[in-house]
Amino acid sequence: MNLSRLDLNLVVALRSLLEERNVTRAGQRVGLSQPAMSAALARLRRHFDDDLLARVGGHYELTALGQVLLDRTATAYDVLERLFASQADFDPVSESREFKLIASDYAVAVFGTELARVVHEEAPGIRLRFTQPPTTIVDDTATLLSATDGLLMPHGVVSDFPATDLYQDRWVFLVANDHPSVEDRLARQDLARLPWVTYQRTYDAPAVRQLGMLGVEPRVEVSVDSFQLLPLLVAGTRRIALIQARLAHLMTPLADVRVLEPPYEAVPLREAMWWHPVHTHDAAHIWLRETAARVGRRMADGHDAPQLS
Fold first, then answer.
1. Alpha helices (runs of H) in the chain, residue ranges in sequence order
2. Which residues 6+ apart lie within 8 Å of 152 measured at CB?
3. Which burial class, exposed, middle or buried, applies to 71 when counting CB atoms under 10 A from its CB (0-12, 13-18, 19+)?
4. What are phi and psi of 132, to 5 degrees?
5. Which residues have C-beta within 8 Å of that of residue 302, sequence separation ≥ 6?
6. Cα–Cα distance between 253 and 234 in angstroms, integer?
7. Per residue, what are the HEC states of 260-293?
8. pTM
9. What is the pLDDT of residue 302?
């Protein structure tokens, strides 16, 4: 594909047409007349050799290719927008900009809140937007990173992208304060006999892989896509949950649970910020990475992953 022969303005038209599925509304959205948008649609149809929009009754529906292009066009638009927003210099005091970070509720609670506080104090015009990672994060990491500013994720889940380390954490177990069969410690056999509540995505993959290597197959009774719900789903039950120590330190005052050390040497958790190489030399992104790393160092200097008293 020779990009020099393409009119990149067609990316804007294509996104609008696919999302609006109406030529007139698509034109109004991007400031083009109805004839101009119709001409853009004709050029797009010739390029893709596909109708993209097919009339069904009194409205248009996406063709199979149009449906495929819907998500790809949104991603391409975001990449182009970020590309042309790149700066040689960046002054956080005077700039106005939004940074989008993909992060689990754990990462936002433990790290994102402190990052947001520092940004609020040092860069009043900067906005942060945290979004939950999609289930495709491992399978389509490059595409997702190309359309965002960073991914907060432990080592061992994604690789082959630049990253800066933020802080360390460790894994602990939660049990109810009134658990009928667990006293001051867990035994290996408890991990197999007791029901579990688990986080249903892949962030704790290294920890789960370690359990498998130890011959432990968790008997999952409840799964959720929020780490912060784990204590509430453990309280008052026989369930156990594997959770990060820093989050447990924040959440245990809110639920009738207690923290116990694993009955094995659990693999440590090293949280990092990952980004697409397209951002590496952008001044604004350099500032974001340096700020995130500084916040991570403060966390380590203040206190490491909380220890049991």
1. 9-20, 23-30, 34-48, 64-84, 105-107, 113-122, 141-146, 188-193, 205-213, 230-234, 245-251, 283-302
2. 101, 102, 103, 104, 107, 108, 111, 112, 166, 271, 272, 273, 274
3. exposed
4. -65, 140
5. none
6. 13
7. ECCCCCCCCEEEEEECCHHHCCCHHHHHHHHHHH
8. 0.73
9. 66
**The one-letter amino acid at 224:** V
User: For position 85, what pLDDT does the model report?
Assistant: 67
- Residue 23 burial by Cβ neighbours in a 10 Å radius (0-12, 13-18, 19+): buried
Q: Which two tokens stand for residue 83?
A: 């590309």
Report the C-alpha gap between 191 and 195 in whole angstroms.
Answer: 8
* 1: three-class secondary structure by DSSP: coil
Distance CA 259, CA 275 (A): 34
| b/e map 241-260, b = 16+ CB within 10 Å | bbbbbbbbbbbbeebebbbb
How far apart, in whole angstroms, are the C-alpha atoms of residue 231 and residue 241? 8
Structure tokens at 145: 């990173």
191 pLDDT tier (thresholds 50, 70, 90): very high
Cα of first residue to Cα of last residue in the chain, in angstroms, is 62
Give the pair of three-digit tokens for residue 42.
């004709």
CB of 167 within 8 A of CB of 300? yes
Q: List pLDDT tens digits, range 112-127.
A: 999 999 999 999 999 9
